[in-house]
Amino acid sequence: MGDGASIWVLIGTMLALVLTPGADTVYVVTRGIGEGRRIALIGSVGLCSGYVVHAVLAAVGVSAVIASSHVAFTTLRWVGVAYLVYLGVKVLRDREGFDFSVPRQPTSARQAVRQGMLTSLLNPKGLLFFLSILPQFVGTHSGVGTVLGLGLLLPAMCLLVYSGWAIAAGTLGDRLGDDPRFGRILRYGCGSILVALGGGLAAGHG
How many domains does the chain have? Predict the structure, then answer.
């Protein structure tokens, strides 16, 4: 493990990544506004579970192997680009899903966890962190426990931040969820953010 200064730089980097709006934030906010705090909080657990998987893979060396392969790394990043754009377009077209005044089939706890985990597993932000950023803070002779311990800081931080988003979004949904204009603004805003994130990541390949 690196020195104290390096650890604080790593924590600062993680915090910046977690606080930057992305697919994770959109997922938690839309779940909270549309279905309340409980489902949003459960979805947050799913999101963090996906990052735990990333951390375990990094610890056993799978991420290092992928990062060393330009083809594999590039392929994974393009999968992330496609996923972000797909989510953005899906949100922009989902008029019914963002009409919160209409009763709908509630999302089960299992579905919320599964959707959250898939979102974080394919999130380019997570891939970038575990494939490119985390290795810079890990010594060449660091053991599995060290890498796993550092990697697990990210999902722990995510759980704290996303839980706050879930509670705030659930409260906002209670107050504004029945206003159709609010649903339209949220749909266009979230959809545009996701497409823009995908476009920005794609531009970074150039």
Answer: 1
